Amino acid sequence: MTVFLLAILLFFIGLYGVLVKRNLMKIVIGLAIMEYGVNLLFVLIGYSKGGTAPIWSRGMSEGTAMVDPIPQALVLTSIVIGLATTALIAAFAVRIYEKYGNMDVRQIRKLKG
Amino acid sequence: MNAAPLFVVVPLGMAFLCLILSRLWKGMPDLCGNLTLGFLAVMSVRFLAFAGTTSRYDVGGWVPVGGIPVGISIVVDGLTVLMLLVVNITGFIAALYSIPYLSQYTDRDKYYTLFLLLIAGLNGVVVSGDLFNLFVFLEITAIAAYALVAFGVGAEELEASFKYQVLGGIASLFILLAIAMLYQMTRTLNLADMSRVIQNMPEKIPLFFISVFFLAGFGLKAALIPFHAWLPDAHPSAPAPVSAMLSGVVIKVLGVYAMCRVFFNVLGVTQDLMLVLRIMAVASMIFGVYLALGQWDFKRLLAYHSISQVGYVVLGIGLGTPLGIAAGLFHLVNHTAFKALLFLNAGAVEYSSGTRDLKRMAGLGRLLPVSAWTSLVASFSIAGIPPFSGFWSKLFIVIACLQAGQPVLAAFAILGSIMTLASFLKVRRYAFSDPEKTGFKIKRKTPRCMSLAMLVLAVFCTVMGLLFLPSVKAGLLGPAADVLVEGVGYAGRALGGVP
Questions:
Q1: Does the structural domain A2-48+68-111 have CATH classification 3.30.930.10?
Q2: Which residues in chain A have their CB less than 8 angstroms from residue B294's CB?
Q3: ipTM
Q4: Where exactly are the structural domains of chain A?
């Protein structure tokens, strides 16, 4: 249970970073930390104590504990999605820097209302 | 029914094929995009036959073993059919409009690739019977939308898209966190199976936290009021046909549809949740339109109205009564038509005059007759003037409020409608009338394709009030509302029986 709470804590640390930090790159890093928190939680959910890899092989008894393979598959997918979103948002941060000459969100406010 | 996966496969494949084929001929992207969307629109109309039933397609032939699903499933029921129609028909009209509109931009091939990815993601969210798949398609839609918002790559577009990406990213991660917690509870990802496991569970306290995370995630996607900050920036920055898709379809599929599916069919609704939904809905309704009153940017004004109108949809659904849910879904369909039309009008005005600032426009009623007349239809529809579709859905929402014993909510709904009317009178006054302020010239006329797209939507706005006639309602809106009214009974329908 503690590890679950720690993973969720990591998620909220990332959220804090996104909400409080003013540098575009730090916001991107905050989002990445949130994502790591969720992925970690997902993998931990699939883990069972003393579990082996979920591959049935010769010489294994009926009741052998195995880790749940589904969360691992899901986390792989989620990491790939995370790669795409992080790459996209980082590219945008660079383009914004080219346009505004600044990475401070307080300086980047042409839109208002 | 076996054609259901085509809704995802065809646009996904064509998205990349379009990029390759565009090397052969300059007109290829337009052709690919429009043919694909036309095909999907026809398919979605043919799927009306499946509205009354629930059918399941097991991907890869992995049929459930002993009632327990082992593979990914695609489920088509009344609500799915309704949303497929909304997505694909609006998508087709927007694609048609894009052909001349895109002459202002470069990279036509990449535009259609992103547009088709957006459609693939939306269709995927709608047909998916599996929570994690729903999330993956939601992310595909979101990434395509982020890129499309910034398609003009100006400073403002980039800023808007960055804001959208940060808040959209937070929303997606909240949803993923909730999915992880739900998986920990139920050890399954199939929506129907999940729902069954939850009903048999004695301990329901963790569901509270899961509901809060889902509410935050889907609320951000739907831009309900405490979570609305990204929408007024993101929607106006996109090219007009994309704005029409974002306001007309994306916030509803990613926000309202996904929220309804998860809360009504999987978690099961509680009175507290409905109360929260109603409060958020009323706040969106009133503040959205209040903020819209002060806007001078045509598209930004429309974006604030989107917040307000989604409030109406959620209010209807949040009442929880059969009439309320049906009226909410009815308003969802109507809002797609008139808000898409208004964004296309704004795009046509910008295309011809080069400005979106209402103060600088004048006398467009004479210069751009098609935009002027169709936007009159759409304005009447959104403000709720009798013969047009928006009036009927708002009327039924108000009746549903009164029936449910909530006269205060009904009063708020009427107040919101009056403020909407005031705001659109301002648009009429400044953009389309005002003949004494002469000297305002347009650079070019509206191309035929754009006029056609707007006229088709105007016809929809006029006749869609008929959807609530009892005989017509039984074919589309009735089954869709029944899916939500039935709630967790979804489990039995989606798991039982082989298609």
A1: no
A2: 113
A3: 0.95
A4: 2-48+68-111
